[in-house]
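for the recovery benchmark. tokens below, seq after
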């Protein structure tokens, strides 16, 4: 192989290396918990008993607006987790409902 052929091959190899050396795009960061509409799967289960009136009110609300009872309860828990004033009110009432 001639010197010029080797030089051309080396130059071509360098070009291929540069083309292949481009970094793959970084994956988008996972959205923050507050930005997610819901997890892929709700994995923890909670058993809860309620009065017939509570159950009836939740089911009637579902008929009115289409929001599932479990989604409404998750929303209530989320508000309890994030709203300090609401949390205090709920905790105060919870002490009386034991």
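predicted aa per position
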């Amino acid at each position: 192989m001639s010197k010029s052929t080797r030089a051309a091959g080396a130059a071509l190899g360098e070009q291929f290396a540069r083309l292949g050396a481009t970094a793959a795009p970084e994956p988008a960061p996972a959205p923050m918990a507050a930005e997610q509409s819901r997890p892929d799967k709700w994995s923890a289960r909670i058993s809860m008993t309620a009065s017939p009136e509570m159950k009836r009110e939740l089911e009637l609300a579902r008929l009115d607006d289409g929001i599932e009872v479990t989604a409404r309860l998750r929303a209530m828990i989320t508000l309890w987790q994030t709203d300090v004033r609401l949390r205090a009110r709920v905790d105060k009432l919870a002490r009386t409902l034991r």
